[in-house]
């Protein structure tokens, strides 16, 4: 796994919004690598910049108002920032695909399921309608939809949420992309369906070698699915490392707080659920030092003044903290 | 859902009245060569100003040149409805394209197009119609195009408003994430989703186009004699209004009936397609 070359690498990705009196930096220098066959989990609270990061990778942010910059977004040896809009559109859905949080609204309500899967096949692979339809039926079978011949003639409102997310996965993987960005793919689904969808993603990943960037706020989903994890806080990655090591011994106080606040059935009854005090600072009002300092129980004077950067800690782990835990 | 729309439409008496009226008028216009008892252009001074029901074979009487009024109304309806439908087509296509591009592009494109719409709306339509008609040689097609090109603004505003709401939906972002081009998103993803309001607007536009055609034909810039349209039949009739009023009343009644029919149809469609009314029924 470690030796595989990166298929997608973001270097110092930044997304800002121009506001009166300056620029609000919503994603502030995010860097990561994604290797073939690997799942990288991107965790963070609402507003931490996870979704903006994913949209920025595909260059789907409207500009203006969003301003995207980076030292590079390398995809299979090409810098996505240098591509024309047309070349970028050719890549979307073909080499780089995305699935969204809301399967209820992410499908066109007036198009049959069959046509919605055929289209990227015709558009990107130049297949004839007939060949594309055969591929579509095969894809539907592989994402576990019983009776694909019937499903291709149905409209989205005739399918359940889980079925629709399966269809979304079929569409996203139709052209066998090397990278799949999954933005909260199971958040809108109930827990049993969630487990099925995650298992399906894992199986398809093993079969196709797809690299998956899994964006979620749900640590359980990460634990179940991801190989490595990157924790985002206020637009920056604060800690990254292999899932098992990070869950076992978190280095950043924020990660530790997140893990501690998961409700557990074994927890002593009657006690309050631990929480992280305070709220995420608003992106226009970040302190000069560590963004988490105000909520951190271990902060020292240094934390208020100097912004920590990601430092390697061994074992493929990195943390941006002046006083890492367990370190 | 589709059944629901039909069901609501059928339970709407005004809508059904409008639908029946429009259907009868269209069939009459379509088959006028077979239904009309006489040649609408045939002159016969021996039978001028025959009153309706006064003579067998001329049930609605004859005009100042002895032409059969019923035949002229039928053929005139053909022309008025053709102009109405072609003008509606022009209005809807122009309005939809401009509304789509403005709404989906946003920014400068939106501002420029919408200010152009505002400018067009500053002029009364009848004034625009007459100015253009004075320069363009009148023919059925040119009249229809002139009417269409002076009345698309409302449609473009409706379409833009719908698109502004629709383009924020997840499936549009999903389509972009799959590599769909701007044009593809506008015409394949968005346009079908605004079919309902567009259909309602189109129906109502037919009514106003028929009315506009009669204005300009009445004022002499539209359909030229001897070809009959309901508008220029009114023009002919005004000289004899005190003595033979039916010559004016009959084409006037046809215009009223047509406009009413299309308006009722449009209103009925709007009510039937309105999702907010779905619960009440």
Describe the structure in brief.
The complex is a heterodimer of chains A (327) and B (281). By secondary structure, chain A is an alpha/beta fold.
List keywords for this structure.
heterodimer; A: 327 residues; alpha/beta; eight-stranded mixed β-sheet; five-stranded antiparallel β-sheet; B: 281 residues; mainly alpha; MetI-like fold; 13 helices; elongated
3D structure, described in words:
The complex is a heterodimer of chains A (327) and B (281). Chain A is an alpha/beta fold. Chain A has a domain at 105-174. Chain A is 31% helix and 24% strand. Chain A has helices at 50-57, 85-91, 113-125, 129-142, 148-151, 161-173, 191-208, 219-225, 243-248, 253-260, 301-305; strands at 6-19, 22-35, 39-43, 66-69, 72-75, 78-79, 96-99, 179-183, 211-216, 228-233, 236-242, 311-314, 317-319. In chain A, strands 7-8-9-3-10-11-13-12 form an 8-stranded mixed β-sheet, with helices on both faces. In chain A, strands 1, 2, 4, 5 and 6 form a 5-stranded antiparallel β-sheet that branches. The longest helix of chain A is centred in the middle third of the chain and has 18 residues, at 191-208. Chain A is globular. The mean pLDDT of chain A is 86. Chain B has helices spanning 2-10, 13-30, 32-35, 69-105, 107-122, 125-135, 140-149, 153-166, 170-177, 182-190, 195-218, 230-237, 246-273. Chain B is an all-alpha fold and 281 residues long. Chain B starts with a helix and ends in an 8-residue tail after the last helix. Chain B is built from 13 helices and no strands. The longest helix of chain B has 37 residues, at 69-105. Chain B has a single domain (2-277), classed as Orthogonal Bundle (MetI-like fold), CATH 1.10.3720. Chain B is elongated and about 75 Å long. At the A-B interface, α2, α3 and α6 of A face α9 of B.
């Amino acid at each position: 796994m470690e030796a595989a070359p990166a298929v997608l690498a973001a270097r110092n990705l930044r997304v800002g919004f121009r506001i009166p009196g300056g620029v609000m930096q919503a994603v502030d220098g995010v860097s990561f690598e994604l290797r073939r066959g690997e799942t990288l989990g991107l965790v963070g609270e609402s507003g931490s910049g996870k979704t903006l990061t994913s949209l920025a990778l595909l260059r789907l942010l409207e500009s203006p108002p969003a301003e995207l910059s980076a030292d590079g977004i390398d995809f299979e040896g090409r810098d996505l920032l240098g591509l024309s809009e047309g070349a970028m559109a050719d890549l979307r859905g073909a080499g780089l695909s995305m699935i969204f949080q809301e399967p209820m609204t992410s499908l066109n309500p007036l198009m049959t399921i069959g046509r919605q899967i055929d289209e990227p096949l015709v558009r990107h692979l130049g297949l004839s309608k007939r060949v594309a339809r055969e591929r579509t039926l095969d894809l539907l079978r592989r994402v576990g939809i019983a009776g694909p011949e019937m499903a291709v003639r149905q409209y989205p409102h005739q399918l359940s949420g889980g079925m629709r997310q399966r269809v979304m996965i079929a569409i996203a993987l139709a052209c066998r992309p090397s990278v799949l960005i999954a933005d909260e793919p199971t958040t809108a689904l109930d827990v049993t369906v969630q487990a099925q969808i995650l298992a399906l993603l894992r199986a398809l990943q093993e079969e196709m070698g797809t690299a998956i960037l899994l964006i979620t706020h749900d640590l359980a989903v990460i634990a179940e699915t991801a190989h490595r994890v990157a924790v985002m806080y206020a637009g920056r990655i604060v800690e990254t490392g292999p899932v098992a090591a990070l869950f076992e011994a978190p280095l950043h106080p924020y990660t530790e707080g997140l893990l501690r606040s998961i409700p557990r059935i074994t927890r002593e009854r009657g006690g309050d659920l631990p929480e992280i005090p305070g709220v995420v600072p608003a992106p226009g009002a970040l302190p000069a030092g560590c963004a988490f300092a105000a909520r951190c129980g271990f902060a020292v004077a240094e934390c208020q003044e100097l912004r920590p950067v990601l430092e390697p800690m061994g074992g493929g782990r990195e943390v941006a903290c002046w006083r890492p835990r367990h370190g | 859902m589709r059944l629901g729309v039909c069901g609501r439409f059928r339970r709407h008496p005004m809508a059904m009245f409008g639908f029946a009226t429009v259907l009868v008028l269209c069939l009459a216009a379509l088959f006028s060569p077979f239904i009309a008892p006489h040649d609408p252009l045939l002159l016969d001074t021996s039978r001028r100003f025959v009153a309706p029901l006064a003579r067998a074979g001329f049930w609605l009487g004859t005009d100042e040149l002895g032409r059969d009024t019923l035949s002229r109304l039928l053929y005139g309806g053909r022309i008025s409805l053709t102009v109405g439908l072609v003008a509606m087509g022009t209005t809807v296509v122009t309005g939809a394209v401009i509304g789509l591009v403005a709404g989906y592009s946003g920014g400068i494109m939106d501002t420029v197009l919408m200010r152009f719409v505002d400018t067009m709306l500053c002029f009364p339509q009848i004034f625009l119609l007459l100015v253009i008609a004075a320069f363009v040689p009148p023919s059925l097609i040119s009249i229809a195009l002139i009417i269409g090109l002076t009345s698309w603004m409302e449609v473009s505003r409706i379409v833009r408003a719908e698109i502004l709401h629709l383009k924020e939906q997840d499936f549009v972002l999903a389509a972009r994430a799959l590599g769909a081009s701007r044009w593809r998103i506008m015409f394949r993803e968005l346009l079908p989703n605004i079919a309902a309001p567009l259909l309602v607007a189109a129906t109502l536009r037919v009514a106003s186009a028929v009315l506009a055609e009669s204005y300009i034909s009445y004022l002499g810039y539209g359909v030229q004699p001897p070809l009959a349209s309901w508008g220029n039949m009114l023009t002919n009739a005004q000289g004899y209004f005190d003595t033979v009023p039916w010559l004016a009343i009959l084409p006037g009644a046809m215009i009223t009936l047509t406009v009413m029919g299309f308006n009722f149809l449009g209103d009925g469609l709007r009510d039937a397609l309105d999702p907010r009314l779905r619960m009440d029924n």
